[in-house]
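Quick note —
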Amino acid sequence: MNRKWLVIYMTGSLLTGAGGAYIGLNAFYKEKLEANTHTMEKGHANPLEKVETAYDLIYNNYVEKVDKEKLEEGAIKGMLSILDDPYSVYMDQDTAKQFDQALDPSFEGIGAEVTAEDGKIVIVAPIKDSPAEKAGVKPNDEIVKVDGQSVKGEDLYDVIKKIRGEKGSEVELEIVRSGLDNPINVTVTRDEVPQITVYSSIKREAGENIGYLQITSFSEETASEFDAALKALEKKGIAGLILDVRGNPGGLLTSVNHILEEFVTKQKPYVQIEHRDGQTEQYYSHLKNKKDYLVVVLVDKGSASASEILAGALKEAANYTLIGEKTFGKGTVQQAVPMDDGSKIKLTLFKWLTPDGNWIHKKGIQPNLEVEQTALYQTHPLQIKETLKKESNDEQVKYAQEILTSLGYRTDREDGYFSSQTETAVKAFQNQNGLRATGMIDQHTAAKLQNDVRTEMKKDENDIQLQTALRYIVK
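Predicted structure written out below.
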């Protein structure tokens, strides 16, 4: 087996058109894996005798001709399936190639990371400004159909193949979302998604400059992007700093380590790695003193893996405050191992623990201050096939009523019945936006409603979690 490209993988799964970041395996782990493989090979004269017998029996005697390659892949998938671990998966040659291509500085796809969870295909988080985010995809959405075909019981990477595609093409996802009685359909137009991972700005609160750094994922360039952005903010003089990892699905372990070494002192480890034998390795920074300003971290249910390492370290080792919602809950580390034919096995090798030794897998990290966003951020995408009008009664009307209300256009109900007051609200919206005031919701009006929601969501004054962080720093 060729092992010169061993990697550690810190995100939940391969992104559907985006790249899960990974790092070169250090010498210790490489030697450990080589030693384990050597022991396995020497343990028995032929430990795979039963498997070989079954292979020969099926290949040579089954009533119909069997594809040798598919039989081998089936055996590998079968071994991985008994681990009951959605993060340990087999990637055939095509999927492995997509996995590698997804690490480019930009990529084509829908821009969302998916994982398998309890037999379900679940969105971890859409990437900032990605086609998936613009279409209304949200963390924890369960994908049940792709282009009308059920994905129940399918392998994660087989589903990813169906979702991926060329720029400009469309994919329809049928999604089950918590809080909704029925699935919703979301059409996403695939596009190029640039891998810019750090966004910075100065926020003003009570006459003070507050630094703001949003990290959308941890890629190869994130550490250098972060350093440059932080230095620029500090030169302007800041009274505090907000680190925003909401919707960040994870990424490169070395990038998050580099960032933590700027904030966590050497008194406590910023992360611990636990091996299968229960032994742990602790990782420390060389920092002597904390920053001379307050740091606050924004998290939500889309903050996963490497984002949780950062959040856990800043909460437990640096005693900084987390604000927002409980995080996703991924506490394992994977390694992608290439096979000789170009396929790969991504295998869970380690657990990671917080500085205090907590394993957050399937639990997430609870923020110090739990703050839920307003109804504006809870709206659902409109998929208008027929014009909605007075006395229409379905879920699309309900979603439109929720959007209208969140934008400040009063409706007398939000149950899906298109009432007279709903018609009045639609006319008011149309008049305000230069549309023909029909009181009916066609595709053009629906698109404008959704565009306005996205615009309002990006305004600082509507972001309750951000506003809470700003007030916390200057209190």
